């Protein structure tokens, strides 16, 4: 065994106080076990000597035991015994201990102690030389050795004028050199042949005793092995071969295939210079399927309830971010694609009514801005200003397109992300006042779309003379305007929609202005304004058809006193039989005809000519006094400012969606707001109910005809949660899986989840899911991807960040390695080329391997076994068990709860540089693994909890006034920042492990900042919102410490601000408007 000598330098662990300063205080409770201390405590059982057999060691021990016995005169003054004493002097650590004691009383003590030992050896050697001179035996080799030793030791002693430091190191160096040559000196002195007979007899006796002791020890040679093997069960650990993951990417032409077990992957060379080989441990199925997109969808209530979508990058990730955070607004709802939305011009009003089922809980009041609408135009998706209201038992959306606004347009892939036959309208949620909580409870059974369009000017107009330019005045009934004259008009929108009303409006020109004038004009023809009747018809299937109430007056006077006939208004009213005449499945031509049915004279062109001729003939036969007045010539009226308007309405029940030209589709949380068809149910929820508040969507490409989905999810600690908000092992989450079937989500039973190694996304691992059937085209989106959805429940804060998701990821194991982890990127190919494989990548470093246990490590384990016997009773037992089984842990420390709290609970805190070398954090799965193993050695009545270091934020704000001479203000502020860090977290600068149970002084921090050479005045120091207005000797200090015993303080410097030397109070300035008196 290695024993520390009694005369070795003690640890310099005393607390040093300096007058006028206040230093941080640290309690002297148990401070945990470092790995360096664990491995330095070497208790060796191999070749353990039950009896000491070395005669030199025995001679030294005999001298020490004979200080007051009769053997002292025989043994003390002899070169052999002096050499034995020098040989046994333990000098390890003397230099460092002496250096640490500089400037203290210990420095003088250490130098005097070593000098005293050397002077004693010199005296003994001098006595030995005097005795040999008296006996004339001063010419043998032993005497020569004694003279050399005496001379060397005397030369190392300090002179009166020498400094203690130089003389100490000279003495230390001399004794160290002598120790390195003691075996040679002892052999020469022993073989000189002039040793005193009594001493020679004693040496012979000790050698004989040593032989006997060797024989005795040899009989017990197997005892340590038996004890170690059968009682302690401690054997040196053999090499545990390293494992790693490789990702196989097949070629584009390759079909799915299986890699057999034992396939080789070269990984450079091992320590012996041989080719290092990794092999597959089992068969691996390789297919073209790839995970191309992952989205996290969640409901957030931080400010106001809303839905958010976080896109998870899967490649070239520098910093993985927490799940269910940093998302963008998610907009879900409906997309309506319909000919009813073909709106080219005019003032266009659209009303969408969702007819709710009787059991839908209709809200009393709707908050504005709950939804927003987007209409497809040639420029893209154009947002529409809309109103949302409850009308009856319908949820209504109304928006208006101004006459100068852009026309709607069908969707095209390049602009809208999809291609549609007709324009589309999107009704999407708005997180400003999210409607999700109440809208998901609504169910509807039909949708009614109504459009009102006013002011269409670009349409087709024809009469018996041909097509007419409606931009100019024209005669709608031709030049003559006879009875039976007609005109027709049409527009493409009228052909597409179930019409309720069509109106042709304009202004009559070149006709009498009022009804009285018009009647006077036609009085002698026996007709008036009411005599002009037109018949309206519509074209269908190449034939003209009339409808109920198709006769109407051509001229209608206004309501004013003048009774003007200037307004032209011809109505086609389909309100009574529109659905029968304009049923969606019937062919429509979209043209309308107006025929002048009465009066029989039409506008009187022929009647005027006949009457004019008759009167002229009659007047030619009469005297002038009896002549009749000539008739007034009627005019065929002209039409100007013509515009078309219409009202159309369509009702689409959910059972009609397969036959109607109107398509009603979901907009879900899937990628790029792709619209998906309905599932064919009689009713639909207005917004889909989510199975959980936190969802993960996975998209897979090239999955056709596949049934098994296997992916490796690489999880890491989220960067932004380090170090204050880190997951703990007692937090857990669960996953429930669903598959998108093309119209909705289908639940996957638990038994179809073959493997789930991530423990609810709290650690890296494989997820393997067996689908109910092979993937077909109807289960894919338009990009050819299938979707899986995972509902995440439980403690969401336990989830780690996703760094990557990889398919075709297989585990390989080293065959001839030494247990060290293989660096990422080492494996790049297979040992034998395979034409089906495009690339081989090793994305992650190796894991799970351990080198063969060294002698030091084995000795440390033996010592730990002696101490704890594989049971955890004391604090050190817990810590040793962790360090024994988990070589990646750098420190373990048991932390007691405050008195009265959890008396049977043990908090075991572990520090590891493996995953995080800044704050020494471990993943929750590693903490859970440690906890499971240590529980095997713990009483069942103990509540064990293995945790990460707990960091506590200390907010610091500071305002300083710098001297005018300071040129680099930024440099000074950086130095002040570093002062705060060095005071509250000195372990970060030194690269040490942090310690807890620390208390810090506000006054000490204040003094350190105020004493900076560039600081004229420290105006404010605020720590966690607290400050002292004045700091002097009598001021009561503020103690800065954690809430719990295991808290580790970490500064969070909010601001260190440099003020002007002339700053006073608020707006007052020293030397300016700051006046006292």
Can you tell me about this structure?
- It is built from 23 helices and 49 strands.
- The strands form 10 sheets. Strands 12, 15, 16, 18, 22, 26, 28 and 31 form an 8-stranded antiparallel beta sheet that branches. A 7-stranded antiparallel beta sheet has the order 10-9-8-32-38-34-35, with no helix packed on it.
- β13 and β14 form a beta hairpin.
- The longest helix is centred in the N-terminal third of the chain and has 30 residues.
- This is Baseplate protein J-like domain-containing protein.
Structural class determined from secondary elements: alpha+beta
- Terminal residue distance: 82 Å
Please summarize the sheet with the most strands.
Answer: 8 strands, antiparallel
Unreliable stretches (pLDDT < 50, length at least 5) are: 1-28, 578-588, 1065-1077
| Helix count, DSSP H or I runs of 4 or more residues | 23
Q: How would you state the average pLDDT, rounded?
A: 84
Strand content: 25-35%
Protein name: Baseplate protein J-like domain-containing protein
């Amino acid at each position: 065994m290695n024993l520390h000598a009694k005369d070795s330098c003690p640890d310099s662990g005393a607390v040093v106080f300096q007058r006028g300063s206040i230093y941080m205080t640290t309690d002297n409770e148990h401070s945990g076990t470092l790995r360096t201390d664990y491995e330095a405590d070497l208790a060796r059982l191999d070749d353990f000597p039950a009896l000491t057999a070395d005669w030199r060691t025995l001679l030294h021990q005999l001298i020490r035991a004979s200080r007051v016995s009769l053997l002292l005169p025989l043994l003390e003054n002899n070169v052999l015994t002096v050499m034995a004493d020098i040989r046994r002097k333990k000098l390890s650590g003397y230099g460092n201990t002496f250096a640490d004691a500089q400037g203290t009383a210990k420095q003088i003590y250490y130098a005097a102690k070593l000098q005293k030992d050397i002077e004693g050896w010199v005296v003994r050697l001098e006595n030995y030389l005097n005795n040999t001179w008296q006996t004339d035996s001063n010419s043998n080799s032993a005497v020569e050795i004694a003279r050399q030793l005496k001379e060397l030791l005397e030369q190392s002693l300090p002179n009166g004028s020498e400094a203690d430091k130089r003389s100490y190191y000279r003495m230390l160096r001399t004794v160290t050199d002598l120790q390195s040559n003691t075996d040679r000196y002892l052999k020469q002195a022993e073989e000189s042949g002039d040793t005193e007979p009594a001493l020679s007899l004693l040496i012979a006796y000790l050698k004989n005793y040593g032989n006997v002791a060797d024989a005795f020890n040899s009989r017990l040679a197997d005892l340590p092995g038996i004890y170690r093997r059968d009682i302690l069960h401690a054997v040196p650990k053999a090499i545990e071969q390293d494992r790693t993951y490789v990702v196989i990417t097949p070629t584009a032409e390759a079909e799915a295939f299986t890699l057999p077990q034992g396939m080789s992957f070269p990984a450079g060379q091992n320590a012996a210079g041989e080719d290092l080989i990794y092999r597959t441990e089992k068969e691996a199925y390789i297919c073209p399927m790839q995970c191309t997109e992952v989205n996290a969808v969640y409901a957030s209530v931080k400010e106001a309830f809303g839905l958010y979508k976080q896109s998870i990058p899967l490649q070239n990730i520098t910093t993985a971010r927490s799940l269910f955070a940093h998302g963008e607004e998610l907009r879900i709802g409906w997309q309506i694609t319909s000919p009813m939305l073909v709106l080219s011009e005019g003032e266009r009003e659209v009303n969408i009514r969702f007819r709710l089922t009787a059991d839908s809980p209709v809200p009393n009041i709707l908050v504005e801005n709950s939804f927003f609408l987007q209409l497809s135009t040639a420029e893209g998706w154009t947002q529409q200003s809309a109103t949302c209201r409850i009308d009856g038992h319908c949820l209504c959306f109304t928006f208006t397109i101004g006459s100068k606004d852009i026309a709607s347009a069908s969707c095209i892939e390049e602009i809208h992300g999809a291609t549609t036959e007709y324009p589309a309208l999107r009704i999407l949620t708005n997180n400003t006042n999210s409607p999700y909580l109440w809208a998901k409870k609504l169910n509807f059974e039909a949708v009614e779309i109504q459009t009102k369009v006013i002011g269409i000017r670009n349409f087709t107009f024809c009469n018996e003379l041909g097509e007419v330019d409606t931009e100019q005045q024209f005669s709608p009934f031709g030049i003559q305007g006879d009875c039976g004259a007609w005109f027709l008009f049409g527009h493409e929108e009228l052909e597409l929609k179930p019409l309720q009303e069509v109106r042709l409006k304009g202004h009559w020109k070149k006709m009498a202005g009022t009804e009285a004038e018009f009647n006077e004009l036609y009085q002698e023809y026996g007709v008036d304004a009411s005599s002009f009747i037109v018949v309206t018809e519509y074209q269908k299937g190449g034939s003209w058809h009339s409808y109920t109430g198709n006769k109407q007056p051509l001229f209608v006077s206004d309501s004013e006193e003048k009774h003007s006939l200037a307004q032209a208004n011809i109505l086609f009213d389909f309100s009574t039989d529109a659905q029968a005449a304009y049923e969606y499945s019937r062919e429509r031509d979209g043209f309308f005809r107006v025929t002048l049915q009465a009066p029989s004279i039409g506008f009187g062109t022929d009647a005027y000519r006949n009457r004019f001729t008759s009167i002229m003939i009659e007047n030619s036969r009469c005297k002038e006094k009896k002549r009749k007045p000539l008739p007034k010539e009627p005019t065929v009226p002209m039409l100007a400012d013509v515009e078309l308007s219409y009202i159309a309405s369509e009702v689409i029940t959910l059972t009609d969606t397969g036959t109607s030209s109107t398509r009603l589709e979901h907009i879900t949380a899937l990628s790029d707001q792709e619209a998906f068809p309905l599932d064919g149910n009689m009713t639909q929820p207005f917004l889909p109910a989510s199975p959980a508040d936190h969802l993960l969507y996975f998209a897979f490409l090239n999955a056709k005809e596949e049934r098994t989905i296997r992916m490796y999810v690489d999880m890491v600690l989220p960067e932004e949660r380090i170090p204050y908000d880190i997951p703990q092992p007692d937090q857990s989450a669960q996953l429930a899986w669903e598959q998108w079937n093309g119209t909705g989500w289908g639940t996957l039973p638990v038994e179809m989840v073959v493997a789930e190694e991530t423990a609810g996304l709290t650690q890296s691992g494989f997820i393997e899911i067996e689908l109910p059937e092979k993937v077909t085209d109807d289960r894919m989106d338009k990009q050819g991807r299938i979707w899986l959805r995972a509902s995440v429940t439980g403690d969401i804060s336990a989830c780690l960040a996703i760094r990557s998701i990889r398919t075709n990821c297989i585990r390989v194991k080293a065959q001839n390695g030494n247990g060290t982890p293989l660096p990422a990127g080492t494996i790049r190919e297979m040992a034998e080329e395979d034409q089906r494989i495009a690339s081989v990548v090793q994305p992650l470093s190796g894991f799970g391997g351990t080198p063969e246990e060294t002698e030091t490590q084995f000795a440390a384990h033996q010592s730990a076994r002696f101490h704890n016997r594989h049971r955890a009773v004391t604090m050190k037992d817990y810590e040793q068990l962790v360090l024994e089984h988990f070589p990646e842990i750098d420190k373990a420390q048991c932390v007691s709860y405050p008195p009265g709290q959890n008396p049977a609970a043990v908090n075991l805190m572990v520090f590891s540089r493996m995953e995080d070398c800044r704050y020494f954090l471990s993943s929750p799965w590693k903490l859970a693994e440690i906890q499971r193993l240590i529980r095997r050695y713990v009483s069942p009545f103990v509540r064990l909890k293995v945790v990460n270091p707990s960091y506590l934020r200390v907010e610091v704000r500071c305002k300083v006034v710098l001297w005018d001479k300071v040129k680099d203000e930024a440099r000074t502020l950086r130095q002040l920042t570093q002062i705060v860090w060095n005071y509250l977290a000195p372990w970060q600068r030194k690269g040490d492990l942090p310690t807890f149970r620390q208390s810090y002084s506000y006054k000490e921090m204040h003094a350190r900042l105020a004493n900076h050479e560039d600081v004229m005045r420290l105006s404010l120091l605020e720590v966690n919102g607290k400050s002292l207005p004045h700091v002097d000797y009598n001021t009561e200090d503020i103690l800065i410490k954690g809430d719990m015993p295991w808290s580790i303080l970490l500064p969070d410097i909010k601001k260190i601000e440099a003020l002007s030397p002339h700053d006073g109070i608020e707006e007052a300035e020293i030397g300016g408007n700051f006046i006292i008196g």
